[in-house]
Design goal:
- The strands form 4 sheets. Strands 2, 3, 5, 11, 12, 13 and 15 form a 7-stranded mixed β-sheet that branches. A 6-stranded mixed β-sheet has the order 1-4-17-6-14-18, with no helix packed on it. Strands 7, 8, 9, 10, 16 and 22 form a 6-stranded antiparallel β-sheet that branches.
- The protein is about 15% helix and about 30% strand.
- Helix 5 crosses helix 6.
- The chain is globular.
- The N and C termini lie far apart (about 50 Å).
Length: about 400
């Protein structure tokens, strides 16, 4: 049996665990060392470190402190890893804790992070999802059930000093183009809530002031939110520092492509079983500067979809040039509008797109001026027939429950 090399206590603050951190910095000490070929188990907090509760009150989503996230387990040092190598990571298994068989999905207030459709859903809402083996359903979103594909939303290696400086420089430049933007254009270093693993004293203070926030994906991997990184996946990470420094967290029970509600998957605490190996000088050999991966061979089998198209013309009718962001947003809005015809509230429909095994595709980027993006909604997740027919939609959801909302204060 594989050894659990990083353990957590869900009753304990992650700030009390020295094998956890919430910033990226090359000076964070390795929490534990392993050798190429080793396999091991890592336990992870949910991305907020326990700030969200299993109840019907969305005020915790409204009030969550996003300067604290994400709480990552690690860094795991791999003996012999050097800058320029590729770290080969096999995800052997991944799962829930027996004492925590639930997860949450949330829309963040526009004032506190927002989301992909924040202009349409500007206030905080939360749905709770209960796990029954490989399946999940929610008391807040009726008549829908589906199999989960558990995966780490965030996994990657420590950056070098030079790469960290590049991140901070370019993100600060973007932020400075509109420092009053809501939501902000980038999340800059913020020392006050930084947790730097085993770093102490002046070393911690200096690194905390420089440490990159964990919000976006970057060259090292990070918060990519790729739902297909599940059991059976193999990932090749660029190595930027000695011993690589592999960290992970933000586990999801299930997620739709794009994680469009921002707190957009079914967020959970849990564990992940990994094996690591090295490809020496792999970055140069294969021309790699960002991770590449092989997807899981074990995926929920949904092969009947309704596919919603969107083009790069926004809600106000403004034409954009080959803008896939606008196009995918329109596909999402079209799907939400469609589901309301069967009795779902717009919030329930939005939650479904965030958590169910929805596929997102860039379908066309050559036919000027409109890009085409598509959203693939699996029909078998519904307990009723959601496909169009000549008789028109039948209201299947009675509206007696909705996704809890917490208005801005």
């Amino acid at each position: 049996m594989a050894e659990t090399i990083i353990k957590i206590d869900l009753k304990q603050s992650p700030y009390e665990n020295e094998k956890v951190h919430n910033r990226w910095h090359p000076d964070i000490p390795m929490a534990v060392m392993v050798k190429p070929g080793d396999d091991f188990i890592i336990e992870c907090y949910d991305w907020t470190g326990g700030q969200i509760k299993n109840d019907d009150d969305a005020s915790d989503v409204r009030d969550v402190d996003l300067t604290q996230v994400h709480f990552l387990s690690g860094p795991v040092g791999i003996e012999g890893a050097e800058p320029g190598d590729l770290l080969e990571v096999d995800i052997l298994d991944i799962g829930t804790f027996a004492e925590s068989l639930w997860g949450f999905n949330g829309f963040f207030s526009k004032k506190n992070g927002g989301g992909f459709l924040t202009e349409h859903f500007p206030e905080a809402q939360k749905s709770i999802w209960d796990f029954n083996g490989m399946f999940t359903k929610s008391r807040h979103v009726p008549q829908v059930e589906f199999a989960g594909l558990i995966h780490p939303g965030l996994i990657g290696c420590l950056p070098s000093k030079e790469l960290l400086e590049e991140w901070n420089k370019r993100e600060k430049a973007l932020y400075d183009t509109d420092p009053d933007a809501v939501p902000a254009l980038a999340t800059l270093p913020y020392a006050e809530t930084a947790h730097m693993g085993q770093l102490k004293g002046e070393d911690k203070a200096k690194a905390a002031a420089e440490g990159a926030r964990t919000v976006p994906p970057r060259e090292h991997g990070g918060n990519c939110d790729i739902k297909d990184l599940s059991r059976g996946s193999k990932v090749y990470f660029p190595v930027y520092v000695k011993n690589a420094g592999l960290s992970m967290g933000d586990l999801h029970f299930s997620q739709g492509d794009g994680e469009i509600t921002f707190c957009g998957a079914i967020e959970m605490a849990g564990w992940i079983h990994l094996r690591v190996n090295l490809i020496k000088d792999g970055m140069k050999k294969y021309g790699i500067k960002n991770p590449i991966f092989k997807p899981s061979p074990i995926t929920p089998k949904y092969d009947d979809y309704l596919i919603f198209e969107g083009i790069s013309v926004d809600e106000k009718g403004k034409q954009h040039y080959l803008d896939v962001h606008i196009a995918y947003r329109q596909a999402c809005l079209n799907a939400i509008e469609y589901m309301t015809k069967f009795g779902y509230s717009r919030a329930q429909a939005y939650a479904i797109l965030g958590v169910a095994p929805v596929q997102g595709h860039i379908s066309g980027v050559v036919d000027i001026p409109n890009a085409c993006a598509t959203l693939w909604l699996p029909t078998d997740i519904f307990e009723f027939d959601i496909k169009p027919n000549a008789s028109g939609p039948t209201k299947a959801v009675d509206g007696s429950v909705d996704v809890p909302l917490a208005p801005d204060l």
